[in-house]
Amino acid sequence: MNREEIYQQLADFWNSNMPFNKLLGLEITRFSAQTSEVRFAWNDKLIGNPTQKILHGGVTASALDLAGGAVAAANIIEQLPEVSSVTIEQSLRKIGTIDLRTDFLRPGRGEEFIVTAHIIRSGSKVAVARMEMHNELGEHIAFGTGDLYGRLTLHSLLKVNLC
Fold it and tell me: At 133, which CATH number?
């Protein structure tokens, strides 16, 4: 199985098995070592300010975090000399966010929100990702920087025979 197929399986797995992200409607739509993309549609349940009818800041931060985590995970996989279910599991065992900075540029208005992320720096244990969120009109709503550490446990994913 090539890396692109592995990335697609990881995206499908995360889209289906992360209850909080499903609750928010977040979906990984692009997943590679160069860039990731997360999309979600406006939903009145995501309102943070009912007077202005704008997106809750926590939803924005969560979407930025997911996009950053996805590109960091793909970047780790890209650096593996050998791709197998064992090397993926060992390499992504405890992935997590160390620090997430979110800068809100304008109120979160729109019908659809698109979050993109790319790696600024990737070391042996920590990756730094840059994320941006726009609405469907291309208006820049927020950006973030995330420091992501470690490895994710993929016991359930390994059952679908990555390699």
Answer: 3.10.129.10
Q: Looking up tokens 């997360």, which residue turns up?
A: 38
Within a 10 A sphere around the Cβ of 4, how many other Cβ atoms?
Answer: 11
Are 29 and 35 spatial neighbours (Cβ–Cβ below 8 Å)?
Answer: no
pLDDT digits over 46-86, tens only? 999 999 999 999 999 999 999 999 999 888 888 777 777 77
Q: How many CB atoms sit inside 10 A of residue 155's CB? A: 8
Domain count across the chain = 1
pLDDT tens digit string along 32-42?
Answer: 889 999 999 99
